[in-house]
Amino acid sequence: MFGSTARWSFWSEPARVRLLVVAVEAVAIGLAVATLSSGPPTGADLALGGWILLLGMAHIEAATGIERIRRRVTATAYFDLSSVWTFAAALLLPAAVATGVVVVLYAHLWLRVWKPARVPLYRLVYTTATVVLAAVAAHAVVLAARAAGAAAHELPALGWIALAALVYLVVNNMLVVGAVALGEGLGEPRTLLGGLDDHVLELATLCLGAMVALVLTADRWTAALALAPLLVLQRAVQVRQLEEAATTDQKTGLLNTAAWRSAAARRLERADRSRGAAVLIADLDHFKSVNDTHGHLVGDAVLAAVAAELRAEVRQHDLVARFGGEEFVVLLTDLTAGGAGRREVLAVAERIRARVAGLGVPVPAAAGPVVVDGLSISIGAAMFPEDGEELEKVLAVADESLYAAKDAGRNTVRIASGPVVPQARRSTDDAAAPVPAPDPVAARPSARAGGPFAE
Prior knowledge:
Blueprint: H1 15-35, H2 43-62, H3 64-73, H4 83-92, H5 95-114, H6 121-147, H7 158-184, H8 189-193, H9 196-216, H10 227-246, H11 257-269, E1 276-284, H12 287-294, H13 296-313, E2 319-324, E3 327-335, H14 339-357, E4 361-363, E5 370-373, E6 377-384, H15 391-407, E7 413-415, E8 442-445
Parallel strand pairs: 6-7
Antiparallel strand pairs: 1-3, 1-6, 2-3, 4-5, 5-8
């Protein structure tokens, strides 16, 4: 029926990820079975669960087109708006019925959204398990509220609802973040945890879930009115993600050239002339040998790793983009004016150069994982407004500086208005000493391996 299990994408994940997935799913199944020991649910609970399920499925059907596009265009941290219904179920229903709502709702989500978007089945199963655990944990808070005096079959006070939402959020997020961290390694916090907009979206869905639960205690039909604002919210999120996809380089996650030029031009127009700015153009040396030796997929992995090093070295507000091929561009702003600013730029460029020189990129290979290393990068820089008062002029001067760095032997840095080198490389006549080109890019065996794992 299923064919060879070795072909499942689940088996391409590292062993530590597979272990976490199996463990979480086993715990979720165990808790689901344990919830049945409290006795069979009442007819009223089943009817309310069925109504929540009906509303959730209607929401999925209405948003199918939106959700399919979202699943295809974004690879970043993603929060599912179905938590409106699963959180409401956790607040109102016994744990066993709430678990049933989660399982049926996500099965419907798989058939209508995830499967057409080619999301692997094991991710759906794992996500369902994390939501089951989050819902059971949130319901435990409701039971604690009732033990403290809250009326049965009614929503607890606002403080208890807020605590239940916090527990739901933490349990779900920690399990998803744990899987991502084990699969891809510890990267930037935004990659692991998602951005502020992601968490605001999740908070909004939990608030809507609490409001749906409150309405359901009074009039079940009125709860259907939540569908309209939920679809508007979903459409707004889709627009934001499409805008982000249109401005992002898909291989590196950095800005693409058009987006960078537009943002950089606006920054320089508003720049305070008493504070300097600079443009860096960085080009990987001998990058063709990476593609020729290991293939273009490995080359893409190297580009992504170098992009991550660039992003990690500069400040949050600095603009970083892939400029095409193996070239990257950075706009540094709010620099000290004059020579001190040049020294700041040089220090940043040198740190980037050193990061890339020490970089090892783990990649899969037929004979086992290898690490691509021996990389180097040449960097040219130009200052604003000294080397130009418009972006295109500063870019042209930075490009000339890049060629000077290449001519100097590669794996070095040059800034416009004459060669500038770090003190440790300065010779007695204050001229730059060329840096020897590195050996061809090498690959050595590695025990490290990783794979993408996102909800």
